[in-house]
Write a structure and sequence with these properties.
binds nicotinamide-adenine-dinucleotide; alpha/beta; Rossmann fold; seven-stranded parallel β-sheet; 7 strands
Length: 248
């Protein structure tokens, strides 16, 4: 199937800020009809107001499986299908702390959003994709999930779990014309990174051979390729966006 962009429906989580916002903008410009999920409704409203086209907004916490399920059903029924899911909602939790200093509640909260949230959205979207024998899922992971960033146990381990889920789902749905991939960026200056301690950001950026941060546009361009109909023979894979930090 080679459905044109303007006949597709997509869900983007974390669309009110940063990478999710830029991906939503790129998809809206291509004519994709969007269902945008974010817990920050005020910001989501303002972002959506600037997008071309008319889109559905869901002020939900992606850790709430019931709400995720309801929102997916609503979006799918209104549009008859869900072709694309991009999971961008995520948090770092506390950083610049060693494993023995971590707070269990914080580690669980990071896993709830970064892993469970992406598990919930994909779990509820997949039946619609199976029904239509088409789908493109992209989980935004992180270089931290591939390499492990010291000082970031919860974040690194939760993103490693996302990479593990991507490998499993890629294998499970290969026969349904559904691809499931991940993207592993290094550092891109967003609100999430700006909220981190300077020392932690320096640790991460110092490891990038290109000696710069990635840009939102680079992330969105690669995301749009990964979820395009043309990207039809790569699945279960974690695409690199790390300025040379990871070469695998
Ligand atoms: N910026 C980077 O350097 C970088 C690098 C690697 C990976 N990532 C990943 O990319 C994704 C986007 O990050 P970003 O830098 O754009 O962050 P951001 O903080 O700019 O945006 C994250 C968005 O997710 C939303 N969100 C958070 N928790 C939520 C929840 N429980 N339910 C619904 N919405 C929720 C926030 O409201 C926000 O709008 C994250 O998964 C992040 O881990 C970012």
């Amino acid at each position: 199937m080679n459905k044109p962009w303007n006949e597709q429906t997509g869900i983007v989580t974390g669309a009110a800020s940063g990478i999710g916002q830029r991906i939503a903008e790129q998809l809206a410009q291509r004519g994709v009809h969007l269902a945008l999920f974010d817990r920050n409704y005020e910001q989501l409203l303002s972002v959506a107001g600037q997008l071309p086209g008319k889109h559905e907004l869901f002020a939900i916490d992606i850790c709430n499986e019931e709400k995720v399920s309801e929102a997916v059903i609503q979006a799918a029924k209104r549009n008859g299908c869900i072709d694309i899911l991009v999971n961008c909602a995520g948090i770092t939790g506390k950083t610049s702390i060693k494993s023995h200093e971590t707070d269990t509640t914080d580690v669980k909260a990071v896993f709830d959003i970064n892993f469970m949230g992406s598990y919930f959205t994909s779990k509820h979207v997949l039946p619609w994709m199976i029904k239509n024998n088409y789908g493109r899922i992209l989980h935004i992971a992180s270089i931290a999930g591939k390499e492990g960033n010291a000082g970031m146990l919860a974040y690194s381990a939760s993103k490693a779990a996302v990479i593990g889920m991507t490998k499993v789902q890629g294998k499970e749905y290969g026969g349904y014309n559904i691809t499931v991939n991940a993207l592993a960026p290094a550092v891109i200056r967003t609100a999430m990174v700006d909220a981190m301690p300077d020392a932690q950001v320096k640790y991460m950026t110092d490891k990038i051979p290109m000696q710069r941060c990635g840009t939102l546009q680079e992330a969105a361009d690669m995301a749009c390729f990964i979820i395009s109909p043309e990207n039809s023979f790569s699945t279960g894979f974690t695409f690199d966006l790390s300025g040379g930090r990871a070469t695998y």
